[in-house]
Design brief:
The complex is a heterodimer of chains A (273) and B (278). Chain A contains nine helices and ten strands. By secondary structure, chain A is of the alpha/beta class. The N terminus of chain A is likely disordered. In chain B, 72% of the residues lie in helices and 0% in strands. Chain B starts with a helix and ends in a 9-residue tail after the last helix. With 278 residues, chain B is mostly helical. The relative contact order of chain B is 0.15. Classes of the chains: A alpha/beta (273), B mainly alpha (278).
């Protein structure tokens, strides 16, 4: 478990967030609505990891997408560095965007299949792909993500799942973000690759003083990466608190169920059941 | 150059198609420079000569060298098809992009327009419109393009709708790239494969339509000649002047087969997974 993180300034603050999806139909009145997120509030301090845990469809990815500026909230505020991101003009949003970077679950789909690793990362550095001054930076970023620099001339389909996810991490780092939104970063990986990625993410967090918003359905991943945990069910937080306290003394039955499920998953992965 | 050659050789259909179309293009563009005859020069004393050494493809009713006319016809037929396809691609791509990106009522209006345009039998409408007015090469190109962009628009719209939801587009947005850069760097290159394949297949369709219009006497008018115009000259006595119909028909068929082979070959190759340096 993550310990000793120095909590300081609030980086991301979400207040009374509501996200409602409306079904698009020819007649708008006939469209159904889905309440994905209902009055969710939390904040992430600089250098802190906050995890949202819940089963598929509970609304956790909607929160992440909204914090990234992709899904407009129906109500509530999302403030990043004390600025409501949904009230900024396009120019200010572009200026702010590099500071919040995503690492998606679908690592393969996150990389343009027609671009080499070098192009993918240099694009993030906003330089021409053949700009020699950025070669060292690309190599350094790949090295930070635990990859050999020779990999930079490869295309995504020539990489393994773990390597693809590391490229996604390297690209996110290229922009010197303050907050990285990790949407199920290791759920599609095998156990050993997952563990290596968690170690990498923990190391990067220390090195670059990153904050994480971790989205996961698996508490075994979350316990290795987060300082704060919120349990989410049907669009609301059922329990929220420091990771250690919440995992050792859960007050809600749903949290106990998730802990039990993650213990079983761990046992089955290590071959003990 | 070697990479292009290797790319063409990587698929048999593409290879054969390129050879066929390459021969036809060289024949049409370079041939007239080497030919001793002009496509419009008449010599009635040599009218309707069957193929011989001095006239390898024979002569027509006015004693014009059929080889020179075939070369000129190639320029006209291919020129019309290529220009009309280029215009159709431009209209189709712009419409498809606007439709997919703007969405809402603009998308609905544009797609209904596509539906209406697709509802018309293309050849019939072109014949009707051209038949009512004065036929010219410019007009033929324009009408072929105006009635051919819809498939491209639909393809581009559906591809863009899929691609813009891909996570690498979201990642590009998260980096802070401008929308126009996302379109030009991330979306268009991923759409182009399908557009190129459809366009190559459209060229062969337009060659056939232009030849049909010209065969019916509504297309390219004398002294110009397309392969369709030449074909129609052979219908007066198809047996006695067999070389007129056979050679012009062969060129039309060869060009259509060639472009279809290129289209099929490109469809096989233009999958993102094949473009890497594997």
């Amino acid at each position: 478990m993550q310990a000793g993180t120095t909590a300081s300034k609030t980086l991301l603050q979400i207040k009374d967030l509501r996200i409602v999806y409306k079904q698009k139909t020819t007649f708008p009145a006939a469209g159904q609505t889905v309440h994905a997120v209902n009055s969710v509030s939390f904040s992430i301090r600089q250098g802190e990891s906050f995890a949202i845990v819940g089963r598929s469809g509970c609304g956790k990815t909607s929160i992440a997408m909204s914090a990234l500026g992709f899904v407009k909230p129906s109500a509530g505020t999302i403030s990043f560095m004390e600025k409501n991101i949904w009230q900024l003009n396009r120019k200010d949003i572009r200026r702010l965007r590099p500071l919040i970077q995503p690492v998606f679950q679908d690592y393969g789909n996150s990389l343009n299949p027609r671009m080499t690793v070098n192009k993918i990362i240099t694009e993030a550095l906003r330089a021409k792909p053949d700009d020699q001054t950025h070669t060292d930076t690309v190599k350094q970023l790949l090295d930070s993500a635990g990859l050999d620099s020779g990999i930079r001339w490869r295309y995504p389909h020539q990489l393994s799942g773990g390597q693809k996810q590391r490229i996604n991490i390297a690209r996110a780092l290229a922009l010197h973000p303050k907050l990285v939104i990790l949407d199920e970063p290791v759920s599609s990986q095998d156990l050993s690759t997952g563990v290596q990625l968690i170690e990498l993410l923990n190391r990067l967090k220390q090195t670059y003083e990153l904050s994480y918003l971790l989205i996961s359905h698996n508490l075994s991943t979350v316990r290795l990466l987060s300082d704060q945990i919120a349990i989410m069910k049907n669009g609301v937080f059922t329990e929220q608190g420091p990771a250690e306290t919440l995992l050792q003394h859960p007050s809600d039955n749903y949290t106990r169920e998730l802990i039990e499920a993650s213990n079983l998953t761990n046992l089955s992965k290590t071959g003990q059941v | 150059m070697k990479r292009i050659f290797d790319f063409i050789r990587s698929d048999k259909s593409l290879y054969v198609g390129f050879i066929l179309i390459g021969i036809i293009i060289i024949f049409s563009l370079i041939g007239p420079l080497l030919s001793p005859y002009k496509y419009s020069s008449q010599n009635l004393s040599e009218a309707l000569q069957s193929p011989s050494i001095s006239h390898p493809l024979g002569t027509d009713y006015y004693g014009r060298d059929m080889l020179a006319r075939m070369m000129h016809g190639g320029q006209i037929t291919l020129g019309i098809a290529l220009l009309a396809t280029t215009i159709a691609i431009l209209i189709g791509m712009i419409t498809g992009l606007i439709s997919a990106f703007v969405g809402g009522w603009i998308d609905r209006i544009l797609m209904r327009l596509v539906d209406i345009m697709l509802g018309f039998p293309r050849l019939f409408i072109i014949l009707l419109v051209i038949g009512m007015g004065h036929s010219s090469i410019g007009l033929i190109i324009l009408f072929l393009a105006v009635f051919s962009w819809m498939e491209i628009a639909r393809i581009v719209r559906s591809e863009v709708l899929v691609i813009k939801e891909q996570l690498y587009i979201k990642s590009a947005e998260a980096i802070g790239l401008w929308r126009r850069r996302i379109i030009s760097i991330h979306i268009l290159p991923n759409v182009m494969g399908t557009v190129i394949v459809s366009s190559v297949l459209l060229i062969s369709t337009l060659i056939l339509i232009e030849s049909s219009i010209s065969f019916l006497g509504l297309g390219v008018q004398p002294p110009n000649a397309s392969w369709g115009t030449i074909l129609t000259e052979g219908r007066i006595d198809p047996i006695g002047t067999w070389w007129i119909s056979v050679f012009s028909g062969t060129f039309i068929i060869a060009a259509i087969i060639g472009f279809n082979l290129i289209g099929d070959g490109l469809r096989n190759i233009l999958d993102p997974k094949f473009t890497g340096n594997s």
